[in-house]
């Protein structure tokens, strides 16, 4: 293929990019469905790739000094020609990317909704459990079995909260995660403090019971008490 043929081929490739870019922007301005925009973007990517290949071939040809006169076409040198086509492509692509980003953000918000509700409910359950534990310590006779169950529930719910925070981080932006992270960090500290209080109390009670057993075991048994001497 001679230089004139390649020049015409490059011109057609440039026109294809221009038409595809206009078609995509036009579809956006008409509020077409996303699938139509996606198809238009696919076509734009294809024709732009074709242009890049053809343009490289043309640049290689005119790099030969005997074709130097073909380096400028319609007042545009090689670099300007390439940059203008690239700018046309990027302007249309930016429109598509903005639409795609908006749709993805909406999808993230929808999928994050149930996770946020679950987090809110579990945080409320944690607060209620901590209140129950605090009230238990005020009783004269503390139910140690109930405390152990409360401790297990606190740890279980906290694990669920941590799992949901990880899930939220995978579907939401860091900015959105940060909005709830402070509250979650506070609830984690509260749970650890509550569990520590329970552990200390249970340990003290177990130590007390153990000391009673030891004390009881060291007392002399009535059956082993020797009879008093009887004077005859």
Give the averaged pLDDT, no decimals. Answer: 89
Span of the ends, CA to CA:
144 Å
Fraction of helical residues: over 70%
Number of helical elements: 5
Shape: rod-shaped
Quick gist of this model?
This protein is an all-alpha fold.
Main attributes of the structure:
rod-shaped, 5 helices, mainly alpha, Methane Monooxygenase Hydroxylase, Chain G, domain 1, 232 residues, 0% strand, 2 domains
Per-chain topology:
Layout: H1 3-29, H2 34-62, H3 78-136, H4 144-171, H5 174-218
Structural overview:
The protein is mainly α and 232 residues long. The chain has two domains: 3-107; 108-216, Methane Monooxygenase Hydroxylase, Chain G, domain 1 (Up-down Bundle), CATH 1.20.58. It contains five helices and no strands. It has helices at 3-29, 34-62, 78-136, 144-171, 174-218. The relative contact order is 0.07.
């Amino acid at each position: 293929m001679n230089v004139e043929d390649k020049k015409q081929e490059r011109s057609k490739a440039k026109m294809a990019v221009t038409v595809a870019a206009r078609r995509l922007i036009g579809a956006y301005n008409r509020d077409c469905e996303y699938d139509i925009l996606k198809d238009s973007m696919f076509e734009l990517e294809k024709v732009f790739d074709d242009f890049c290949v053809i343009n490289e071939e043309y640049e290689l040809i005119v790099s030969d000094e005997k074709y130097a006169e073909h380096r400028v076409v319609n007042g545009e040198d090689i670099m300007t020609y390439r940059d203008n086509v690239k700018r046309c492509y990027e302007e249309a692509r930016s429109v598509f990317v903005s639409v795609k980003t908006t749709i993805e953000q909406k999808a993230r918000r929808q999928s994050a909704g149930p996770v946020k509700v679950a987090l809110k409910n579990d945080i409320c359950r944690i607060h209620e459990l901590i209140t129950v534990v605090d009230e238990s310590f005020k009783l004269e006779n503390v139910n140690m079995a109930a405390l152990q169950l409360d401790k297990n529930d606190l740890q279980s719910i906290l694990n669920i909260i941590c799992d949901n925070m990880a899930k939220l981080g995978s579907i939401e932006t860091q900015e959105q995660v940060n909005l709830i992270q402070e509250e979650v960090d506070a609830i984690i500290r509260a749970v650890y403090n509550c569990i520590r209080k329970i552990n200390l109390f249970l340990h003290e009670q177990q130590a007390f019971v153990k000391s009673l057993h030891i004390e009881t075991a060291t007392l002399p048994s009535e059956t082993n008490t020797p009879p008093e001497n009887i004077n005859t």
